[in-house]
Structures are given as C-alpha cells and as structure tokens.
Amino acid sequence: MVLGMDILSTKSFLLFFVSAFGVSLFGNSNFSRQTIDLGMVVSDIEKSVSFYKQVVGFEEVDGFEVKGSFPKAVGLTDGAPLNVRVLVLGEDESATKLKMMQVDSKKPARTINQPHIHTLNGFSYLTIFVEDVDLVMANAKKHGHEAYAKSPQILPKGFPQDLCLLMLKDPDGNFVEIVGPNTKALKKKKSKK
C-alpha cells in the first residue's frame, strides 16, 4: 500500500507540476491562441504598411497606442510611446497579426543590410501562404518591388512540386517568403521538361 501511495503521490505531483507550466499529462496546453502576433519596428510606417497591404494582401484593422510609463516599465522602449498599426491575414479573431510601429526614440533603430537570412541571428523572415503567387508578383511589380534573387522557384525535391516560393524584401529589407501554387511561368517551364 505504501508503494501504491508513492505512485499516486508522484502522479498527482507531476499532474500539478506539469499543469502549472502549461502542459498536462492529458495534452492540454496553456496557449489561449494557436497563432502568434509579430511586432515589427520599421523606418517608414507608411511605406511598410503600403507594402504589406498593397503587395502582400494584408488588411488593416484598428491599431492601438501604448504610452505613459508602461513601454519603459516592461522594456519595450526607452520611454518612447508606441503607435501600433495592426495588419491581419483574415477576418477571424485568431488571424495572424503583424503589429507595425515606427518609434520616435532618443536612439533611432538601425536598418541592417541583410543579403541572406543567415546574416543576422533572430527572426529572419516571414512566410505567408497564398492562393495566387502570380497576383502577389503583379502587385509587387505595380508598386515598384521586384522578386529577390532568382525567385520564384519551385520548392526543392522532397517538398510538394506544385508549390513555389517567391522571395520579396519589404521597405526595410526584411525577407518575406510568399508560398503558393506554382506561377504560370513555372508551370510552363515544368511542362517543357
């Protein structure tokens, strides 16, 4: 019986311990949403919002301000207030949100030339899945943006061969991967092989 109590006590402790930190033995999670919001500091808010709306296809929803002592108290800024513009990938409440801000600070943000995703540690690119890569390419061209490197390209062997990746760079030089069905030109090229 003592052995049975030890096992029961151990199970209870593990259930309590694991549940307190977000995961129970039954597979529950502490995550209230299964998407993340991404905050992005930009050098020119109007250019960046325009790129993500007109080229990529995001929609803008109501933004918000964070001011007073809060931004400094939690380490967001050196005390500069934030005026956040919010872009979404759909109307669902849980849609991915891209929160953009241009911060007027005592020490302005640096823009770093990033020729490849491995140039800097940390987040290096966004991947956005679309239904029509040709549409994004047309939007990019219309608004003065070009495909980066030799993209779009059909995904490499081992991945679905009916999908391609178009690489763009936003006005601050951040990589934006557009993944979707092969473009008309890639379909033509593939059929000739």
Structural commentary:
This protein is α/β, with parallel strands linked by helices. It has two domains: 34-106, 2,3-Dihydroxybiphenyl 1,2-Dioxygenase, domain 1, CATH 3.10.180.10; 123-193, Signal recognition particle alu RNA binding heterodimer, srp9/1, CATH 3.30.720.110. It has helices at 2-20, 45-56, 70-73, 133-142, 184-192, and strands spanning 37-41, 59-66, 82-88, 97-101, 125-129, 153-154, 163-169, 175-181. Strands 1-4-3-2 form a four-stranded mixed sheet, with helices on one face. Strands 5-8-7-6 form a four-stranded mixed sheet, covered by helices on one side. A hairpin with a 5-residue loop joins strand 7 (163-169) and strand 8 (175-181). Mean pLDDT is 85; it is low at 1-25.
Short précis:
With 193 residues, this protein is of the alpha/beta class. It contains five helices and eight strands, in the order H-E-H-E-H-E-E-E-H-E-E-E-H.
Residue share in β-strands: 15-25%
Structural class: alpha/beta
| CATH fold-level label of the largest domain | 2,3-Dihydroxybiphenyl 1,2-Dioxygenase, domain 1
* CATH class type of the largest domain: Alpha Beta
Rg is 22 Å
- Could you give me the name of the CATH homologous superfamily of the largest domain? 2,3-Dihydroxybiphenyl 1,2-Dioxygenase, domain 1
Estimate the helix proportion, in percent.
25-40%
Mean pLDDT: 85
String of helices and strands = HEHEHEEEHEEEH
CATH architecture of the largest domain: Roll
Alpha carbon gap, first and last residue: 72 Å
Shape, please? globular
Q: What is the total tally of β strands?
A: 8
Largest sheet, spatial ordering of strands? 1-4-3-2
Uncertain residue segments: 1-25
Main beta sheet strand tally, sense and closure: 4 strands, mixed
Count of domain modules: 2
Individual helix count: 5
